[in-house]
Amino acid sequence: MKKSLLFLLFSLAICVSVIAQSGKVYDNLTLTSKILNGERNYAVYLPPDYESSKRSYPVLYLLHGATDNHTGWVQFGEVLHITDKAIKEGKATPMIIVMPDADTGQMGYFNVGDWKYEDFFFEELMPHVEKKYRIKGEKRYRAVAGLSMGGGGSFMYALHHPELFSSACPLSAYVGPLTIEDLKRRIARGDKKYSDKEIKEYFQKHNALNLLESVPVEDVKSVRWYIDCGDDDFLYEGNSLVHIAMTKKEIPHEYRVRDGGHSWTYWRESLPEVLHFVSQAFHQY
After folding, report:
1. Is-contact 62 97, C-beta < 8 A?
2. Which of 30, 83, 177, 229 has its CA 20 to 30 A from that of 188?
3. pTM for this one?
4. In 3D, which of 203, 211, 205, 209 has the Cα closest to residue 241?
5. Which residues are CB-neighbours of 214 under 8 A, at least 6 positions away?
């Protein structure tokens, strides 16, 4: 009787331990950047079994929007709760999520003038985290997603480097200025001046529609695409045009339009679908 009771209590303790398992988020991490000449912040989500296992994990680079920073997805996006739940329910595979800061010093994910953020991302951030954490460093196990400005980053990073990402999930994305005139108007509102050549080069490299014309179709097809934008979102036009362009080129992609606008309420509902979508590639479907 005592043995049965002890066994029952032991089993119960194991069950409670498993149920109580949670991932961890570290949102005050830094690395020194020579490219950006200073310390850069980033946050990381580690899955529930990271500390108890020795295996390596796939990685999702999750990009924040304008005026937010590396803590946006942690504080407002509830990345810890949502990812733990998706993993527990079997809708997502355990993964590491890296959330960099693109709002300190200058805002944005791209190279602009002397601000070489995209170089920093690929030449310093990725090598740093993929060495520091047990991350599988192959295309198959790497994905990128983001909202608004970070959705634009997701588009551009995957189109600039389709050899690096198995999936890209732009949410409510700013797909870039739709015309050079739009870009010139935006620049005119700022303090810095750029030549016509610089403006043209920036437009060609940071407009998703233009890149869909210049990047080889097979390279674009090598990335799995999940595009999601609310029906009341002010960025609906660019996302719709990308969907139409991909459809005409017969580029496979998932395109979602749900009820909602440009808000954290919308993106919190998007995140579980993103985690499920990227997990499919991590598992090779």
Report:
1. yes
2. 229
3. 0.91
4. 209
5. 204
